[in-house]
Q: What sequence folds into this?
């Protein structure tokens, strides 16, 4: 058993790619070692901005021998054929082969023994192949090697059992040396083993283990804020990113000029986070503290004074820009920015932002009817102002703050707080993890925006295809669905589409039909992600149709929940069995007879009491079910359905469907068909699995 | 360190690395990359190393000299190393040391930033270099120019000279930069040299440029470029391509181009750049 140490030193690997890269590399090596029959007992991967490293232990020193049986030519085949076979099998004479009878005659068979190769011979090609296969999101060519990599490879350290493995990497040096931290370590580091490597890198100011590095940063940040009586605004994504930007993390803190603290906290946080990768802090009362934390990659000889001063300057310049916009923008009320929206193109074929606003206003008038508590005047106003912040300097500088900036400016203009909030909320939810708005006017604005985009882009044929969704219509669809579901709205979407289509004006085709399918598909996906079994979804959609489903998602839910509860009850399980039995028999007979048995059974033809009982039960049920479903008493509908179980079971116990007498047989098939039809009123039970 | 000595020191450093010191190209460009010493020389197999300063015009970035950080023309110091040396990053760091930036005092970081020029049909992978949180350079390994694969791959370094100088001198406004290092009456600031130009060009770019005329010039340059490509003279053709690119930037700053038109203009310039690059390679083969 021996140890493999591999380190791929390169120029800086983008932070966002590191974790995936080391997972892929360890996975590829593990799989290839196993396939070569030299599996590692343990294998660990490490990643920093400059290196991917793997330590694999317990690798067998040689592959096991392999034996393989090969069939040769037919006994009595011409000599050249036999000679050729002997050559390929590495045998001296045909005497070493066995002649054996097969179905196709007598053939020679040879047992070829392949000696296992030493691992050190197998590994170089194996490692190179794993590197070639590593799927970087983006990779590049560079002069030193024909192997594409994320950035140029600097050198490779590769030891097996303490000996250098000569990897074929063209002009990239391969050996037992590496380098430590770019600035805190000088010269080459020569390594004997994995343990030696870990120790030397530690001395070389490289915190190799990404989890340790992350933890060290987290602790450093916590200590830094605690020392100042502040608390850290948690930001796991930023922590992860910063972990990928440093080999030797040093947490430092800087100050924000008091003048800038009047800026909205979102502006401060965006300037710090998105552009500078700084962490924000809060005071004990939750307000933003005039301090920021960041993670440097080096211990400076002056204790970090220069680095802090430099970072403070950079932030100051950014915030000075922000404050300039904050002061300038607020001189002009949002209302007077509405007109300018006519010069802002929404889409070349769909006209200006002003046109979009007009369509959204029309939609708002409709949607507001279905949002309890929403005021029509306030909703309309919110929509009118929703996009006005796009022409502000602040949103020009920080596009990710669209909406949020509008909210601040609206409050400054003295708009109603509900209107201001709706301006901020109308883009939301921004993704599957973003919270849905709940305020009534926010819901109206958010729905109006999304519905208009969906209908308008579908009308000009700009539908999402495959991975392409340039106008984020899938997100708009999911947002619409979530706004409805999470707020228990009963918005008839098909009618909302009509409203959007007429707002679009003449000259555009009506895309509602396609849109219904599109939204229904997103809804199905969303329901599955919420853990609802796919067969249950299919059963209910098949019964009420796509349009019915998206028109009243609330009712769809109630129906699915009731059905789900029913299907796990004893009555439900048995009735489902009976349903299948009935519909199978009918299906088979219908196929054999080349006709259908949909017409009602004739009560004068019944001979057995079980037929009569089932007939009566089914008859009574149809009208009751219809009324229960119409009144959305889905649980009661299920209870009612369950009363079918007994007559159905008894029918199957006592009655023979396929009798000799044709008229009786056909009548009984009609009865079975009626079971299927009755149950399908609730849901398409044929879709239920298991 | 004055603005001009910063430039001199960087040029001296790169000259010592075998770069020829070139002078700015005399056609308006948006970035040092467009200089034929980079855009065209990055193609083909011949080794090439050059350093030069390039005034870079971004008409839309003009602020009438009122914004301390933004101007419609700034200076880039551009280095091209072909083929990309294995120690490109070390050389870059040594160049910072040459202008007095001591890595032991600062936090220097290579942060992912892939470069792409849609008008030039060029892209590469690399980083923006952060000096204590401030982006001071762009570092790119060219993969394609004019839609043609670069073989060998070159290293391209672009220093934002004003920003770097502001950091080194510790000033808050670009216009306060010490230009020549003299004291007393001989002292010249960046503002003294360029402020008037910023005011006047901002007025031209945003208010005075005659868009109809610019559209005409664009079409002329485009036609001329095509005609010259047909004659196999890559360099004069490329000048016309650069003119077209700058005219497009002017039209864009004037707000005279809609979103869809914008994409179409970019494609037109890219087509010219691609044709010039092909002609450049063809001409090199013919000369041999």
A:
């Amino acid at each position: 058993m021996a140890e493999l140490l591999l380190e791929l030193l390169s120029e800086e690997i983008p932070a966002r790619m590191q974790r995936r890269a080391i997972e892929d590399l360890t996975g590829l090596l593990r799989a290839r070692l196993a396939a070569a029959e030299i599996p590692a007992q343990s294998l660990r991967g490490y990643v920093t901005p400059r290196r991917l490293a793997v330590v694999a232990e317990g690798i067998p020193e040689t592959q096991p021998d392999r034996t393989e049986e090969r069939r040769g030519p037919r006994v009595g085949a011409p000599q050249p054929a036999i000679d050729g076979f002997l050559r390929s099998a590495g045998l001296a004479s045909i005497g070493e082969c066995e002649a054996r009878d097969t179905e196709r005659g007598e053939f020679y068979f040879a047992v070829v023994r392949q000696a296992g190769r030493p691992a050190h011979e197998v590994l170089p090609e194996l490692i190179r192949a794993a590197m070639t296969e590593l799927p970087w999101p983006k990779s590049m060519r560079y002069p030193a090697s024909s192997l594409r990599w994320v950035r140029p490879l600097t050198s490779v350290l590769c030891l097996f059992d303490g000996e250098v493995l000569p990897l074929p990497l063209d002009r990239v040096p391969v050996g037992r040396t590496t380098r430590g931290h770019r600035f805190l370590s000088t010269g080459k580091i020569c390594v004997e083993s994995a343990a030696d490597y870990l120790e030397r890198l530690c001395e070389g100011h490289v915190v190799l283990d990404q989890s340790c590095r992350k933890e060290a940063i987290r602790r450093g940040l916590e200590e830094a804020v605690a020392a100042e009586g502040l608390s850290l605004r948690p930001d796991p994504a930023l922590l992860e990113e910063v972990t990928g930007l440093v080999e030797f993390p040093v947490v430092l803190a800087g100050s924000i000029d008091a003048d800038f603290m009047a800026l909205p906290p979102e502006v401060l946080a965006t300037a710090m986070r998105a552009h500078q990768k700084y962490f924000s802090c809060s005071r004990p009362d939750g307000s933003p503290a005039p301090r920021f934390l960041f993670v440097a990659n080096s211990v400076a000889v002056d204790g970090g004074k220069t680095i802090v001063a430099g970072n403070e300057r950079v932030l100051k310049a950014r915030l000075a820009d922000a404050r300039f916009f904050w002061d300038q923008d607020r001189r002009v009320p949002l209302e007077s920015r509405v007109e300018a929206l006519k010069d802002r193109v929404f889409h070349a074929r769909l006209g200006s932002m002003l046109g979009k606003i007009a369509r959204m206003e029309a939609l708002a008038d409709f949607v507001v009817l279905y949002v309890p508590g929403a005021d029509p005047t306030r909703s309309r106003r919110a929509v009118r102002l929703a996009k006005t912040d796009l022409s502000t300097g602040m949103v020009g500088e920080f596009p990710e703050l669209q909406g949020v900036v509008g909210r601040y400016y609206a409050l400054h203009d003295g708009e109603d707080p509900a209107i201001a909030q709706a301006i901020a909320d109308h883009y939301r939810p921004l993704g599957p993890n973003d919270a849905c708005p709940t305020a009534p006017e926010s819901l109206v604005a958010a729905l109006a925006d999304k519905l208009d985009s969906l209908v308008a882009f579908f009308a000009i044929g700009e539908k999402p295809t495959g991975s392409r969704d340039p106008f984020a219509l899938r997100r708009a669809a999911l947002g619409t669905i979530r706004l409805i579901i999470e707020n228990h709205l009963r918005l008839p979407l098909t009618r909302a589409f009509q409203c959007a289509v007429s707002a679009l004006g003449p000259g555009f085709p009506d895309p509602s039909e396609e849109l219904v399918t599109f939204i229904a598909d997103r809804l199905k996906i969303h329901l599955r992600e919420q853990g609802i079994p796919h067969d249950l979804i299919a059963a209910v959609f098949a019964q009420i149709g796509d349009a019915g489903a998206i028109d009243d998602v609330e009712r769809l839910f109630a129906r699915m929940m009731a059905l789900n509860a029913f299907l796990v009850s004893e009555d439900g399980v048995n009735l489902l069995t009976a349903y299948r039995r009935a519909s199978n028999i009918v299906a088979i007979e219908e196929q054999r007879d080349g006709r259908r048995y949909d017409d009602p059974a004739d009560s004068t033809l019944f001979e057995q009491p079980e037929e009569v009982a089932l007939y009566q039960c089914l008859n009574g049920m149809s009208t009751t079910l219809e009324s229960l479903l119409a009144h959305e008493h889905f649980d009661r509908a299920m209870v009612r359905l369950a009363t079918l179980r007994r007559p159905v079971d008894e029918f199957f116990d006592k009655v023979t469907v396929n009798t000799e007498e044709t008229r009786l047989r056909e009548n009984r098939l009609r009865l079975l068909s009626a079971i299927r039809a009755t149950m399908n009123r609730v849901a398409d039970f044929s879709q239920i699995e298991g | 360190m004055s603005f001009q000595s910063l430039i001199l020191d960087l040029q001296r450093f790169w000259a010592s690395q075998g770069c020829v010191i070139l002078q700015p190209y005399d056609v308006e460009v948006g970035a040092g990359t467009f200089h034929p010493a980079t855009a065209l020389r990055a193609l083909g197999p011949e080794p090439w190393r050059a350093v030069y300063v390039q005034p870079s015009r971004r008409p839309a970035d003009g602020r009438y000299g009122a914004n301390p950080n933004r101007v419609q023309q700034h200076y880039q110091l551009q280095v091209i190393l072909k083929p990309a040396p294995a120690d490109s990053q070390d050389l870059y760091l040594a160049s910072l040391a040459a202008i007095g930036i001591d890595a032991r005092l600062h936090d220097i970081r290579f942060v992912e930033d892939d470069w792409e020029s849609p008008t030039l049909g060029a892209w590469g992978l690399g980083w923006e270099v952060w000096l204590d949180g401030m982006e001071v350079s762009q570092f790119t390994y060219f993969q394609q120019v004019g839609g043609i694969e670069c073989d060998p791959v070159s290293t391209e370094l672009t220093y934002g000279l004003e920003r770097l100088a502001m950091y080194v001198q510790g000033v808050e406004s670009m216009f306060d930069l010490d230009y020549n290092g003299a004291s007393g009456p001989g002292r010249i600031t960046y503002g003294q040299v360029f402020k008037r130009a910023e005011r006047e060009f901002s007025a031209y770019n945003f208010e005075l440029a005659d868009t109809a005329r610019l559209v005409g010039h664009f079409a002329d340059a485009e036609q001329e470029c095509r005609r010259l490509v047909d004659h196999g003279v890559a360099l004069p053709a490329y000048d016309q391509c650069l003119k077209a690119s700058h005219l497009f930037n002017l039209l864009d700053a004037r707000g005279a181009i809609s979103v869809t038109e914008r994409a179409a203009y970019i494609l037109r310039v890219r087509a010219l750049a691609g044709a010039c690059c092909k002609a450049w390679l063809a001409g090199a083969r013919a000369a041999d």
